[in-house]
Each structure stands twice: as structure tokens, then as C-alpha cells.
Amino acid sequence: MKTTLIKNGTFITMADTQVVTGCLEIQDDRITYIGSTPNQPLDQYDEVIDGTGKLFMPGLVNTHCHAAMSLLRGYGDDLALQVWLQEKMWPIEGKFTAEDVRFGTELSILEMVKGGTTTFVDMYDHMNEVAQAVEQSGMRACLTRGVIGLCPPDVQDAKLKEAVQFAKDWHGKANGRITTMMSPHAPYTCPPDYIERIVQAAHDLNLPIHTHMSESRREVQENEEQYGLRPVAHLEKLGMFARPTLVAHGVHLTDEEIATLARYDVRVSHNPGSNLKLASGIARVPELRKAGVLVSLGTDSSASNNNLDMFEEMRLAALLHKGVSGDPVAVPAFEALQMGTIDGAKSIWLHEVGQLVPGMKADLIAVDIDQPHFYPKTNYISHMIYSASAKDVTDVCVDGQWIVRGGECLTLDEEKIKYEAQACFERLTSS
Amino acid sequence: MKTTLIKNGTFITMADTQVVTGCLEIQDDRITYIGSTPNQPLDQYDEVIDGTGKLFMPGLVNTHCHAAMSLLRGYGDDLALQVWLQEKMWPIEGKFTAEDVRFGTELSILEMVKGGTTTFVDMYDHMNEVAQAVEQSGMRACLTRGVIGLCPPDVQDAKLKEAVQFAKDWHGKANGRITTMMSPHAPYTCPPDYIERIVQAAHDLNLPIHTHMSESRREVQENEEQYGLRPVAHLEKLGMFARPTLVAHGVHLTDEEIATLARYDVRVSHNPGSNLKLASGIARVPELRKAGVLVSLGTDSSASNNNLDMFEEMRLAALLHKGVSGDPVAVPAFEALQMGTIDGAKSIWLHEVGQLVPGMKADLIAVDIDQPHFYPKTNYISHMIYSASAKDVTDVCVDGQWIVRGGECLTLDEEKIKYEAQACFERLTSS
Lengths: 431, 431
Fold this sequence. Notes:
The structure is a homodimer of 431-residue chains.
Chain A: E1 3-12, E2 19-27, E3 30-35, E4 47-50, E5 54-58, E6 60-65, H1 81-93, H2 98-114, E7 117-124, H3 127-137, E8 140-147, H4 153-170, E9 178-180, E10 183-184, H5 192-205, E11 209-213, H6 217-227, H7 231-237, E12 245-249, H8 255-263, E13 267-270, H9 272-277, H10 285-290, E14 295-297, H11 310-325, H12 333-340, H13 342-347, E15 364-368, H14 380-386, E16 393-398, E17 401-405, E18 408-409, H15 414-430
Parallel strand pairs in A: 1-4, 1-5, 6-7, 7-8, 8-9, 8-10, 11-12, 12-13, 13-14
Antiparallel strand pairs in A: 1-2, 2-3, 5-15, 15-16, 16-17, 17-18
Helix pairs in contact in A: 2-3, 2-15, 4-5, 11-12, 12-14
């Protein structure tokens, strides 16, 4: 058993709104103590870390990402959505090899862990590569092979089989750091009967479902035209919400749809940066929260964001809904921090991360608060939401292992990943 | 004469959308050359800087700030506007001494220069302290004593006299780095006759005017109730726009008001972060730009933002108006970068900064682009807007002087400023 004590630290535990100053004890992969004084004499610990000038908080949870798409960061911005997808994203993504997915994912993981994200949801293809990258990095992830069903039946069958195999192979792996889900990509990319088959597979595997839903106004209109129902009613009818479900976006929702999501305990991953950049609109987050829907935050991919800074998503969530609603108390700082930590964890059915309390897994980050933009020392919850960025993170611990120290990632080879990601991009766009 | 060459650099000049790779030459306070190869043999330069892995661009221009209010960062967030002002801001600001203004301003300047802002507009009180801090820091600033006229005539007279004296004393000082303006604080804090006197003083001094205008819906309504006119017509009637004018906010504007601003060449400082946080609303930036109004960006104070990261304001400007308008090409990256650099400079009548071209003042910043969130090397203009933050800035040059190197400010004592700012805050809130 390895024991670590962080002393002289400032802690946002997310158990309540009070900041704790003092000590936090880690035994192996779990937090075992938090309090103003050490739990035992300092010489009893394997390691004592001086937390002076650092703020410690739960690691951030990014509940919607396509990590490999970092290879397309900045490739085709400021374009109309269909042009962006059809002329830029899809032709290149169609060429992605397993190796591209590996390096793109590693580039994203590097950016995420250095910026304080300890858990992410990933929906993509070549998922064995993604899972291996997660395992190597030391990060926590909820992974799913997203399937698009606009293809012949035999290809549909093959994709579903692959998704099931991946979900079976990796669920609970990497000391439990990896969990899996089943994912029909979206109601507009999967025929109804295919969605029903994927839902059935999720039942068989006893796994949750992740999908894109109601991201753009056009998608909602087309769903109504094609199926006579808006996406929420359509997916409800297909039985999806009988499974635990996390939907990404949920931008265009009626009051009735919000009530339906609340009734089924469907979770919504709010992606404010991506929704703004793609001009999809602004999700009704205050209304969702008021209805009791669990709302978390996602970056979406670096192709539509274009970064994976969860501090920025928390800040956008706190700022945007004030400005849009005209209510300066809409989404206060603490609620934005909940969305980025504990509510993110709950959204993917992880009940042992997201708070710094004894018994929880040791997933935590350190922020350098001895910088001008964190003075005066008024309110650190406010400072984390309104003043902090990914670049303020210095140390990251996941499952009791320090994977970032002094701003350096200890588990991945940064120079190699940057080099290889650049090479992948050049190869993909040269032919 | 001191000559410096930056070699192996990547340059966003803002003269056009092309990125230049190669060299930039500085002689004393001016840029004298930019091109793919050095202008003269390397041994002819006093200093040769290796720009490998760095992106150089014009320093950012923050066109609306109250720097001293950094002392109130995080003090009273997530409150209704009137509660925030009346119960939190005003009682403490009323106690601000010259010393408080000095340390609050230095704290802000430190944050700004380390984050790549080379020029700022400041409207506050105790402006001699602000000007001295600017002079010492090496930054560029356009300063103005903001006057509130809700006071007896003798106090009005004294404030105006002080504002005039400050404007005279400091205009053109610090090797021309400091310019001044005249500022009635806002139409709702200055009686009409007092605004007319301030406008007359600006005429007499041949200086521009800066004011807050149409920030909140309530302000516009009350202006109509009190004066029978919306703020734009009210200020037009008082003769303000006969002087060169920069207004902050301009959130609630009709088409007709936008046309009026365009006709008078009134410049608008868009403060997206502050406007969202205070729930003021979202300015009609695409419409303003389409009408030919010069739009720049401001952070407002750290009490309502709560940081002075101009990269964030540029990103908000690029993201927000896409999401609100539903148009994914509203405010493209290059336009957001214009708003943060060259258009900011033009907005305060500085015609020698904001671009990296020969003949311009050497106001430039270096960004560390050898980081995961800037890979692949697709489009650096996009990367600066959608992926960068203040923390990516490593070096800052103003007027040919390097005031930040390797992330350290060379002109101000960071440890002392953080200590003193904290002490000021504690004293202000203890009694």
C-alpha cells in the first residue's frame, strides 16, 4: 500500500461550497482523509507533497468527445455546417487509419490531462486504439464505438458486432478506469430498426447508451418530416430511454421534451463551445436543470471547438445562460463546477469520482493559484470558473497515480505525439 | 540605436490573412523589416532572437477596462446587478485610496502584459496613479478620468477640473505611450448639462471621448423615461458625437441607432464576457460591423469578467455571434483577431500599432505554439482565436522594449504586487 499526504493545500471538495485548507490523504487509489491537520505523523507517509500555493479539486469530466478528430483542429473553420462536414470533415475522416486514430487520440489525451480533465467520454471508430491510449495514459474514460447505420445490412451487422465486441472487451478494464457504452451515432444517421437493435444489444450487455440528439434545428425538422416525430419522442418510441442514456447537445428541446428527459432520467451533455462554433444554438440549460435533468459538460471534438479546455466549457456554461436569459444568477459558479466534476461523473454512472471525500477514487488536480489572475484570494470557486484555464493546471492524479507533475505528462511521450500527429495530418491531406 | 532580429519565427502580421515565416527586424521602437530572410548579416544586430516554436503577432488592445477593480475580483459574483453594485462594488470602491488604485492597477497590468495585452483603455479615478503604473510597466494606454456627475455643482466642477488637468498632464507622455480622453461616465450618471461641459472640454483639449452607453435594457428604458430619448439620440443631441467617441458596450441598439453611430464614426468597445456575466445581453456585433462601425474588444473590469484575458474576449466574439445568429460564418477568426489588434488600435486613434509591418511601433507578442493544443499546424489564425489563451504568451514587446520574457514581467515586481493587492483587499473589506 502506498500512502501520500498533501499538506498546506486549499481544497474544493465539491461535497459542499466551503473550501477546505489543510491536508488530503491518499492510500493507493482512494482518498482516505481530508482535514485541517494530517491524519498521522508525516514520517508515516510514503510521500508528502507540499500543496502551498496550489488549489486541489476533483478532476474534470468531459462527457462528450471524439478525441481522434484533434487531427482536424483548425482544418476548415468558419464554414457553413454542411460545407464543413461534407467537404472538410467526412472526406478526411473516411481516410483515418487505426494509426491516425491512435495519434489523434493521444494528442487529445495529452491536451486533456495537462489541462485537468481526468475522465472523458469518447465516441468514435477504431476504438481498440482509443482504449489502448487511455490505458497507457492513466486516464479514466467511458468509451463507445459510435455506429452510423446509413449503409447496407451486412455493414450494419459488422459495425454492431464490432461495437458489441469492443464494449465487452473493455468494460471494467485498466483497473476499472475504462467503462463502455453502446452508441447509435444519432437519430438522423441510424434507421429506426437499427437503433432498436443497438438498444437491444445494450440491454443484453447491461450497458448505457450514448447518442447525439437535437443538436441543430434542421435535424429536428428533418426528423419530424421523416418520422413524424421530434427526436425525443422518436427515440422514446424506439425504446432507447428504457436504458440509462446520455445524450450529447440537446440544444433544441421543447418544455414537453425536457419533461420527457427528466422522467426517464436521461442525462444531457451540454457542449456550449461546439454549439456556438457550429452555430447550432444555445441549449436550455437552466430549464433542464430546473426540470431535474442531470446536465454535464463536453467539449465535443477539437474540430468544432477547437480546444479541449474544460475550464472554458464551465465558464461558457456559467456566462452564456446569464447573458441569454437576462438573469445574472442563472448557472452560478458552483453549479458550473458541479457540471464539470460531480455531475459529469454521475452522468456516466461513475459514483466514485467527482468529489474529494474519503472513500472516493483519488482523481484530483492541482491548480497554481499563486498567479495575478487569482488575486485577491476572495472566492476560489468563482476564480476556478471565471478566471482559470487549462494552462493553470500543474498536477493531475487519476486512480491514485500522478500522471501529470509540474505540467509534464509522465505517461505519454509528448514530443513523439506532436510529431506523429503532424505527420498524420500531412499524410491525410496530401493525397 | 538598438537593432534586434527575430529569426525562424512565424508571424501573423494582420496586414493580410497570410502567415509569414522568417524574420522581423526592430530598430529602437519600430519594426523596420519583415521577410523570409534576414535584412542584414546576423552579426550586425545587437540582439538576435530565435523564434523557433513561437508565433509572433501584434500585441492585443483592450479598449475598455477599470484596472483598479481587480481588487474586487470574485468579491460578489452571481448576484443581481443592482445588489452587486449597491451592496458590493460601490461601498468598497468608495473607500479606495490612491494606494489601492495603484496596486489594483498594477495587478491588472501584470495580468494583462503577461497575457499579451500591450495597450489598454482605462477609465477610473486617482488616474495619476494609473498613469504612473503604466509608465513604469512599459505598457501603452489610453487613459481617462471617468466622471460621475450625480453630485453638487462644486463637486462636479472639481471632478471636471481634475479630469482636464489629468488629460493635459499625461497626453503624449512616456515616450508617447500614454494618450488621454475625456469621459462622462455614462448618460445615466451624468446630467445633460454636465455632459455638455465635458464635451466642450474635450473640444478645447482636442481629445476624444469615452463613455459607457446602452449597456443594459433598464438603462435604455430609464433614459427614455427621463429624457424622452434613447441613449444614442440623447448623446447625439448633447453634441458628444461631434467629437471622436469610443463607447463601451453598446448592447441594446436599434438599426437606426447603429446607423447613427456609423454616420458619426463612433467606435464601439464590445465587452462580451462582462455583458454575459452581468446578464446585460449580447451586442449586435455582426450588424454593427456590417454598418461600418469600428468594433473592438474590452474586458471591462475583473470584477465583472473576472479575468483580463483578451484571447478569451476574441474567442467569445468569434463564438457568441455564430451561436446567437445561427450563422456559422458570423465573425470569422480573422475578424475576431482584427477586433483584438488593429481595430482596437484604430478605435483609440492609434495608427502606429496593431500590425507587424515596417514603420509601425514594435508592439508585439510571442505565443508558444509548440504545445498539444496548437497541433496540427493547420491554421494559426484559427488556433489563436479558438485554441489560445493568455497563458500561452511567453514574450511581450512594447515600443521596442521587451517587458515580458519567458513569461516573467521585467518591469514590475510580481511578488510585491500580489502581496500588496491582497493586503489592500483585506483592509478594504475588514472595516
